[in-house]
Amino acid sequence: MSKTFKIILEPQPEGGYTVFVPELPDVVSEGDTKEEAIANIKDAIEGYLLTMKEMGWATPVVEEVTVDVQVA
Q1: Cβ contacts of residue 5 below 8 Å, gap of 6+?
Q2: What's the pTM value of the predicted model, to 2 decimals?
Q3: What are the C-alpha distances in Å from 18 to residues 14, 27, 58?
């Protein structure tokens, strides 16, 4: 079975990227390049989901909403 997850790549001032998974807030990774960061987060997601399955835990359900914010 395959599932698609949205990820957020955040460039770091010292170089590299931190990667977040909004749907899985406990899953965070990093990499020196975008490609490495994406590969690392894929591994992290797969490991997280496998652990959840092995423990019999339900995958967290989140709702994504967009809000408008006024910036001065």
Answers
A1: 21, 23, 24, 45
A2: 0.82
A3: 11, 11, 26
CA distances from 10 to 4, 49, 56, 69 (A): 19, 23, 32, 20
Distances in Å between the Cα of 38 and the Cα atoms of 34, 56, 60, 62, 63 are: 6, 27, 21, 21, 23
- The ranges assigned to domains in the chain are 8-55
Neighbours of 49 (CB within 10 A): 16
Report pLDDT digits (tens) over 47-69. Answer: 999 999 999 998 877 777 889 99
pLDDT in tens, 12-25: 999 999 999 999 98
Structure tokens at 23: 């749907």
